[in-house]
Structure formats: C-alpha cells, structure tokens
Known about the structure:
The chain has helices at about 20-30, 50-60, 60-70, 70-75, 80-90, 140-165, 170-185, 235-245, 255-265; strands at about 5, 30-40, 45-50, 95-105, 110-120, 130-135, 190-195, 205-210, 230.
Amino acid sequence: MPQGDLRVPPASHGRIRDYPLLMAVVEASTEGLCVCHEIEAHPQVEFTVWNRRMIEITGYTMDEINRLGWKQTMFVDEQDAKWCDERMARMSEGGAIQQEEWRIVRKDGKLRDLMVSSSVVEMPDGTTHVMTLMSDYSERKRAERISMRRAAILDAVAFSATMFLTSLPNGQNIQQMLERLGGVTSASRAYIFKNSTGPDGEILSSQRFEWCRLGTVPQIDNQDLQEIPLVAAGYQRWIHQLGERGLIAGRIQEFPESERALLESQ
Length: 266
C-alpha cells in the first residue's frame, strides 16, 4: 500500500519529535487530507501534506502532483479548470469551503465525485497554507443517479399508461409519450413501429411515430423504414421475442450481423 507524504518545514526542526505522531494521525484519517501553499513557479501550488487516502482517491503521489500540477491533472476540462482557479483563489484569500461537491479525473481516467472542505492555516512565520479534506462518495452518487433515473422512467411509464387509459391514442398524445420516455432514458430517438401482414403472409413493419432529441436527424420520412419484411431483413429473432412479450435491448455492435445494417444507418 503506498504511503502518504508529509514534508517537515525547516522552521519546525526544533519540534521534529512531534512529527511521527502527526504523520500517524494524518495517515490514519479515513478522508483524504492535504495541505498546500502558493508558489511562483509551475504549477503555482505546492503540496506539503498528502496522505495515503489522497493517493487512493486521486491515484497520484504527492511528488507526482507537485510535478504535474493539481489543476492540470485533475481538471482537464477548460471550464472545470477555470472553476478550480476560482476555488483556489477563494481559499487563498481565507474563504473556507464546507462540504462542496467536486468532480475530478483520477490518474486512471475515471471520474470521481468528491465532498470537499477546506480551511486556511496561518503559520507563525506569516505563510498561509490551505488544509483540505476530501471524501470520495462516487458510488453513493452513482446509486443516487440510478435511483433518480429509475424513478423518472417509472413516472414516464405511469404517464403513458394513464394517457392510454383515459383517452384515445392520437398523434399528439403519442408524441408526448415518446418525448417523455425518450427524455428520461437519455435516448437520441424514440419511435413506434406498426406491424401488418403482406399479401404473402410476411410480417411487415413500418415506422409511424418518432421523437428525436435536438441535433438528431429524424427518420420518419425514411422509406427504408416502411414495410420492412422482418424475416427477409434478418429480424426473425425480433418476431419471436417480441411475440412472447419479451425485450430486445443492448448495444447495436453486439447484435447479430444481420440486424446491424439497418439499425446503424439511423
């Protein structure tokens, strides 16, 4: 397990016996704990305390973060970097941060949601340091997002069911239903196909309604999506599974090759 780091300020050498205890307390913290101060050279901020939990949260050691830069490594988006500058300026001026939500990019490229608190520490020699505590609550945040999304989907399904039970389906309310379902599922499009039987008994499927997210090209006038002979087009699986009230779901890239061409064209 990587160990954290704590640099002993020269002015404190006379109290060096206190540092083993201090280091043990810092390392035992279940939260990420770091201390930094401003410097003139790149990367403008230098850390002198960076405990083991900080390494686990960010993926970086203190030497790495001091060489590469806190903002430069963990706030790669320009807007996020600007936001980070504003927060650092606020902290350096003595403004404390209490339980603020931050999102960073770990060394492995994964996004992590953090809860951050900070305070300014004035040293006897006149230098100013910022002490920050960080808690990684990414999994809890992810669970909250999943729960909220599930609730929104159920609400959209309830809306659709109520609509069909209380009024006759028509173009307007079907569009409302598709917009509601497409929006809460973050889909780029939602549509309804109607099946019919051809002269030779073949099942034909035609697109009848469609909702598209802004920026998505509508396909409602695409003649390739009208009277599709499902068996001949390679969708025998769909006939069987949907006929049994089953579900077709997944990434197009993982579908059988016979089904991908028409789906990818949309």
